[in-house]
Amino acid sequence: MNDVLILGEVKEGSLDMKTLELLGAGRKLCGDLGSGLSVVLMGDELSKAVDQVISYGPDKVYKLEHPLLRGFKTDLWVESLEQLCRQINPKVFLMGHSFIGMELGPRLACRLNTRLTTDCIDISIDPEDGVLLRTKPVSGGNAISVFKCPGEPQLATMRGKVFKPAEPAEGNGEIVDMVPEIDESMIRVESMEVVKEEIVALDKADVVVSGGAGLGEEDGFEMLDGLAKALSKSFGNVMIGCSRVAVDKGWISSDHQVGLTGTIISPDIYVAVGISGAIQHLVGMVNSKKIIAINNDPGCNMFKVADYGVVEDFEEIIPALIKKLEELS
Amino acid sequence: MKELRIIVCAKEIPDPEAPLSDVSVDAEKMEVIVDAPQVISPFDENALEAALRITEDMDSKITVLSMGKKVSDTVLRKTLAAGADELILLEDEAFEKLDSHSIASVLAEAIKKIGEYDLVLTGRQAGDWDSGQVGLLLGEMLALPCISLAREITIEDGNVMVKKSIPEGYELVKARMPALVTVSNEVGELRYISRTKMLKMMRGARSIPSWNREDFFSAPEELLKMGIFELSSPPDMGRDCQILEGATPDEQAGKLAAVFKALR
Q1: Residue A59 gets which letter from DSSP?
Q2: Residues A178 and A314 in one domain
Q3: Which among A45, A90, A315, B254 is least surrounded, fewest beta carbons within 10 Å?
Q4: B127 with A145: Cβ contact below 8 A
Q5: Residue of chain A nearest B253, judged by CA positions
Q6: ipTM confidence
Q7: pLDDT of A1 higher than 60
Q8: A176-197: average pLDDT
Q9: Per-residue pLDDT tens for A163-174?
């Protein structure tokens, strides 16, 4: 039986390595349920990704190949997945809490009249009744809730970098070719243009200098740029981060945003300047190896999670710090 | 051109920026207790701001919908002060602690009762349960084209044009109205509301319509509560912070520089 299904993601023809974490999570459930593990891959050219995924030992790979599945058109992807689920009736269906999973999950749940839990950090099977337990941080991370919901497939999107990636495994997984019945008339949202922007890969930074509402204005980031430049003489990859408020105010673009709806990072050093530390921000940086907080409010949250703190206006500290760093280097 | 009608769904939640010390978990009752003022969920405020920008020089009507067991009209009146034309509260005992699917079905029924609309806007996710589902569920239930994570919305010849955030940048997409759009914070924060305007709206005699389930919802037996099985506090994130003291900023900066040097 292939009761646990996961949605594999394909990037430029190759298997996206995030999929391995889902394979790991799915495999664990299969152990508890005594069932098989299936993977569905979607796209217009899948042979390479199918070969890659099969080497991790799933029991079945559903290959949904169609010229219209080139690129990610949500309308067609939801339709195709709905058709697949109606045909094979998986008990559990897991997706990544990725851009794709966040778009597909709710719409698929609605069409299959089942319930979805998003951004799970753990899943297990209740031995009493065999139902999926879905663990998810709520209230921006202030509490951890376990949900149990009716409906099948039991649907969850899984947070990245939480599950151990699957290891390559022997197996003679079966490849099932399926052609979804889709056509252009099902596209209700038309893509006019994809504009690639220079995206800051915050998760690759060694040091992040981050600013928030306490900067008071956009110019504050110029000062942080100066600090980042000074630090880059001693440290590898130094980047600029920010809190959600700074994006809302239009001071900086959202690829710099650290937190629940931004990037979740764990650099060697995180320097929080004028960030009070709303929980949804802390979730994004609390695992940094060292945290340094600069804030004029000694009572703010950030000092509670920091290793070192300076209580002072950043406008006083940053220029002085840049000077001292230069003297020391 | 006929008047453009926008419905914005907004949820009242405890301030998500509240300090950690104001939040606790009652594991027994399975409730998160936040000792903070109620606010409008931040992404919903972004959605309202998007609606206000779209309609800036256009004949329009913006209706804000908010639901719950009891909704505080003092919190939600802010939407009127900001420029919304109408606020409707959906209040009923049966609307307490519902799961995303049930919330969406209540909103869908209310929107059907409102009848005419061109756009439905929601925040990308709420600041309390962070589920990120209601918008898209609502779109599916109303059989509308669905667009998520909008950073800019414009209207052109009966179409909605949206710059939606994608991992590599943004995608410009177009859909025929009526449509549903979920809004992200790149849209920008809700405009400044002067104190006078706010006070006037709070004290105003204007009555806010409140609908209960009999007014618009026919199938309360279909409503499900959130299936919370267990609720606990997260692992302690606290560290012992060493405050770098100094008589002058220069002295503090010197100590901080030494910390950086040691971490090199």
Answers
A1: S
A2: no
A3: A45
A4: no
A5: A321
A6: 0.94
A7: no
A8: 97
A9: 999 999 988 899
